[in-house]
Amino acid sequence: MSALSIKNVWIEYGAQVVLERVSLEIEAGAFVAIVGPSGCGKTSFLRLLLGQESPARGTILLDGKPMPSEPGPDRGVVFQRYSVFPHLTVLGNVLLGPELEASPILGRTFGKCRRQLVERARVLLTEVGLGDSLDKYPTQLSGGMQQRLALVQALIRQPRVLLLDEPFGALDPGIRGEIHVLMKKLWKETGVTIVMVTHDLREAFLLGTRVVVFDRLRNRPEEKQRYGATISQNIEVHRRRVPGQDFHERIAEDSDRDDPVAVETTRRDDPATTH
Ligand SMILES: Nc1ncnc2c1ncn2[C@@H]1O[C@H](COP(=O)(O)OP(=O)(O)OP(=O)(O)O)[C@@H](O)[C@H]1O
């Protein structure tokens, strides 16, 4: 069963059609990278999956059931701009979401429940290299560290789907390489389904198991309002394992390269995505 089943979805803002006829099956555990020109509706699509927008037409199923029309713990999100709270420590930032969920009025857990939560937070923070920074505040962290914190904030709630909106766009290339390795590791370990918007094609092919291209098929000035973007390509990415080389080394090596990552792709002629 697909984790997300998107059928003939349209997004409209007033008279402006932003997306039209978007159909996409995203299998559980996939890592889907979405690319497309600026303004074609990529962020709007993510907001739809998060539950911040409703489709003008069409349906979205999450694990076979209609997707709740509000954001919930089953969907985590990380934005390009750091979404951490400046007045809370690293640990406080990670605990806030689960504590509010467990205790909406007090926003705080106690006893065994809290100890277990703190332990889970510690394990995850250590995994992303923030184990020594639990008591620091976000202003004391670099951009890359803040994004790693934002990832833990989302993952601690064990979402079924993780939505990433250009999460690494503001980072320096070297830091980006490191966080790509980490992202891939976290994805493999958690098995979470990921949908990531990126402007960086290389990043899309490096991380994605599928690269989906949104584009406007009608682009004349008089057509801009009435016609939206849709999926123009849906590409499956196959990676060959290099004997004797472990997965992380391979990605780290790819991250250092300036030329496009060597991958094999197949165009997916899924009836759901054929227009
Ligand atoms: N809440 C809104 N109300 C009205 N129009 C909106 C709203 N949100 C987005 N739009 C419009 O929808 C279109 C798509 O915007 P969106 O941010 O989804 O594109 P994008 O592909 O993510 O762009 P970029 O790559 O530049 O971030 C734009 O024309 C934008 O102005």
UniProtKB/TrEMBL annotation:
Residues 246-275 are annotated as: Disordered. Residues 4-241 form the ABC transporter domain. The keyword ATP-binding applies. The keyword Transferase applies. Keywords: Acyltransferase, ATP-binding, Nucleotide-binding, Transferase, Transport. InterPro entries: AAA+_ATPase, ABC_SmlMolc_Importer, ABC_transporter-like_ATP-bd, ABC_transporter-like_CS, P-loop_NTPase. SUPFAM superfamilies: P-loop containing nucleoside triphosphate hydrolases. Transmembrane segments: none annotated. GO terms for molecular function: acyltransferase activity; ATP binding; ATP hydrolysis activity. It comes from the Bacteria. Pfam families: ABC_tran. This is Lauroyl acyltransferase. The lineage of its organism: Bacteria, Pseudomonadati, Pseudomonadota, Gammaproteobacteria, Nevskiales.
